[in-house]
Amino acid sequence: MIRDKYMRMFFIPLLGILIPAVSGIITYHYYSTIEIILANIYFIITSFCIWKGSNWIHSKLRGQFKIGSNPFPKIASLCGISFLYGCSVGSISTMIWFYFSTDDFTWNSLLKFNVLCGLAIIVFTLVYEILFLNKERELDNKIVRQLDRERSQAELEALRNELDPHFIFNSLNTLNHLILNNPQQAYSFNNNLAQVYKYFLLNKHNELIPISEELEFIDSYFFLLKIRHDDKLNLETQLNEHNERLIMIPPLALQILIENAIKHNEFNQEHPLHIKIAMNHSYLRVSNNVKPKPYLVNSTGIGLKNLSSRYRILCNRDIVIENTEKEFTVKLPLINQASLKN
Questions:
Q1: What is the pLDDT of residue 43?
Q2: 88, 54 contact by CB (below 8 A)
Q3: Alpha-carbon gap, residue 190 to 197, rounded angstroms
Q4: 299, 264 in Cβ contact below 8 A?
Q5: C-alpha–C-alpha distance, residues 235 and 188, integer Å
Q6: In sequence order, what are the beta bridge partners of 289?
């Protein structure tokens, strides 16, 4: 709106003065200074009428075309109808001018005036439509981003709701067994279980957390998994402690990848599942050896899709999935804490 206001304030008077002068319908030496000023005011009013009428035409015609449809028919229609309107108003205004002024009427001057009016209308119609389409695209992108964010949050909530009952059921069964057979380990298991759920509660609504906090959670979470699976799992981390304090990550990102590796692979004490978390200059790399289970795994696929959606929303980058016969890898883009402040 502000941009449109300044364009009107500048271009309406400019065109009202410039077009009559260039087309030759005003012979300035015929008139006094006051008469020239009045003539310019007259054609500025003409310019305003053309501008206002063209805007009205644009507002009415835009509603006749579907959003997202091919813009060329719309632009051609706007240019054509606005051109006819502008030439009609310009012709009437020019005829009135010749009737009351001392200038002699010539078809050449009238034609020049209409051609210049038409060209100006087409140029400004194109400019306005480019601005309008950009604004429309920005609005569409904003709506899409909002919908992606809502979908991502809904998927994450669904993931939590799917995970929590299953996880607590297995954990309580394991804890029950440890209480009877190994009370000391049961005590450690209970402490780590408490840390896992504390993490869930503290970060369930956060979009990003420091990777150091996620790794502390993973230590507690992996402790529970190792006991549940009788030490058939190994976890190796290769990270820089300085980077751990600066790099951010969506909460539960590593948990999703670890759970995904356990869900889809067969492992035992002779052939354990080895999970490795490493970092380079642009990605956090989570990989595991591959030995697919001999039966079909019932998986919704929500986990990786949710991670992909969250990263696209948060940093306009996507996760990278690499799958070979020996190794499955997911690369999470690094989100630097310093870049979030800019």
A1: 85
A2: no
A3: 11
A4: yes
A5: 19
A6: 327
CB-based contacts of 62-69 (< 8 A; 24+ apart in sequence): 62/132, 67/136, 67/140, 68/140
H or E segment at 237? strand 233-238
pTM: 0.56
Q: Which long-range contacts (CB under 8 A, 24 or more apart) does 193-199 make?
A: 193/220, 193/224, 195/220, 196/220, 196/221, 196/224, 199/251
Tell me which range, 29-33, 239-243, 276-280, is most confidently predicted by mean pLDDT.
276-280
pLDDT in tens, 176-215: 888 888 888 888 989 988 888 888 888 877 888 888 889 9
- Residues paired with 237 in a beta bridge: 277
Max CA distance (Å), the chain:
114
Rounded average pLDDT over 245-268 = 87
Q: Which residues contact 26 (CB under 8 A, 6 or more apart)?
A: 20, 36, 39, 101, 103
Edge to edge, the sheet with strand 283-289 lists 233-238, 273-279, 283-289, 327-333, 320-323
pLDDT-derived band at 2 (thresholds 50, 70, 90) equals: very low
User: Which amino acid is it at 185?
Assistant: Q
Show the DSSP H helices in 101-237 as ranges. Answer: 107-181, 183-203, 211-228
Backbone CA torsion sign across 217, 296, 274, 285? negative
Taking the C-alpha atoms of residue 36 and residue 166, their distance in angstroms, rounded to an integer, is 86
CB contact at 8 A, 248 and 336:
yes
Q: Return d(Cα 207, Cα 309) in angstroms, integer.
A: 12
d(CA 207, CA 149): 10
Per-residue pLDDT tens over the stretch 146-168:
777 776 666 656 555 555 566 67
